[in-house]
Amino acid sequence: MTTVVISQPMLFPWPGFFEQLQLADVFIHLDDVQFSKGSFTNRVQLQHGDETRWLTVPLQGKGSFQLIKDLRPANDSWRRDHVTALTSVLAAAPNCAEAVALLREAYAEDSVVDALIASIDASARKLGIGADRSILKSSEMDVSGRSWQRVLDLVLSVGGTRYLTGHGAAEYLDHSAFEAAGVTVLYMDYSLTTWPRDGSTATPYLSVLDLIAWAGENAASYLHPATLSWTEFLQKRELNNEQ
Length: 243
Prior knowledge:
By secondary structure, this protein is of the alpha/beta class.
């Protein structure tokens, strides 16, 4: 069985993303789709005391009508600004230096998209996740198409037999078509595990940098990956909507 995960590049995403990555045999960076304003592609949440802050890569034209792989920064100071912001927000964390070092490592890349991809890959290595998994970019795979059909074709192109996805896919996936093609669809059952931080508890949706800064070498112990079949997930979602 080969489990495939496909995701748009994101800036140092939340720990739930890395629970998903733990289960992947093949991971595909979906970098040749249009950037969506308000998404987590170029921004992520941090927490300073009880205040939520955002780490955001400023984009030329705010990223409008651009493919993710073609995004350009709006200024030349964003890398330096992010190092300053992260150092300030996580100053009290015992492993702040490790988080800042990961940021610097990812930001050594020239382009925005490569920095986003590096933010995922560097964090995964730090967490000890999937050193033997295959990592691909959709822009280099010569698989065209749109919506769920392209997702299915990407999965089939790498010999995938299971497609593991986040919750948003329920809005557009044709689950029966995947099954007919011999691909089992699974949804993440995120653990939403929190971690202690200076007398307060983080929300589970903060950047993985927060987890690493506070938990250090124990960061991976806060990841508890689990899945639901697509039928179980849809049933659970329906029940939640009725409540």
